[in-house]
Amino acid sequence: MKKYSNDLALTVLLEQKNTMRCRKGQSIIIEGSPIHGIYFVKEGKVKVFSTGINGREQIMRIATSGEVLGQRVFSSRQTYPSGALALDETIMCHFTLDTMKTMLQTHPKLAFDFMVYYAEELNRTESKVRMFAHMTVREKVIDTLLYMHRKFGQKNGFLDIQLSRRDIADFAGTTEEQVIRILSALKKDKAIKSAGKKIGIPNIQVLKDEIDEHHYFIQS
Q1: Are residue 33 and residue 97 in the same domain, yes or no?
Q2: What tens digit of pLDDT does each residue of 186-205 get?
């Protein structure tokens, strides 16, 4: 939405946004709750997840500045199909469903950008499903670390995001115990380093090479 902030035709509608400050660990969207609008991340990091069998979370992505939450509100569903939770201090911009519909119906360029966004998101999701079907658990954990590296980079030698071992497991679709064992093995192989929750990747190419056949270039 930032690219349209200077569009005079959209100014009135953009001013209808509600800015929210969220604490670390605060729920932004409750899975299964009635739809009440769409969110954009202004600052911070947000995990987007769905609940599976026995209440187990599956983290689908980590959203950051400029990304959208709750974008599936334009389907026929009456409730949010996934939840969202702030991973650190986060600032969100919220638009009601009616406001978003008005913007999309009256501004073709914005509507086109949303259509492209949906197409790219669908492609990423389908690619991830195909890729994960052929990966070992170790490869899934490595792919998760590479995803974090692509999206957040490193600061002072460590990934610029801290996730619990449980969160890594929920993202990779495995168990916390398996993640702990695999991270330990990767550390022993000097493929990663760690300090508490912090994980660093000394040589990114080492991890890339291990899952090269699964096409690391796919953004998920």
Answers
A1: yes
A2: 999 999 999 988 999 999 99
> What are 10-35's pLDDT values in tens digits?
666 777 889 999 999 999 999 999 98
Buried b (16+ CB within 10 A) or exposed e, 77-116: eeebebbbbbbeebebbbbeeebbebbbeebeebeeebee
Beta strands (DSSP E) in the chain are 18-22, 27-29, 38-43, 45-51, 57-64, 68-69, 83-86, 90-95, 154-155, 158-159, 193-195, 198-200
Domain extent at residue 147: 134-214
**pTM of the complete model:** 0.81
Output the six-digit token pair for 95: 């638009």
CATH number for the domain that contains residue 20: 2.60.120.10
Collapse the DSSP code of 138 into the 3-class scheme (helix H, G, I; strand E, B; otherwise coil) and give the result: helix
Domain end residue (candidates: 124, 143, 159): 124
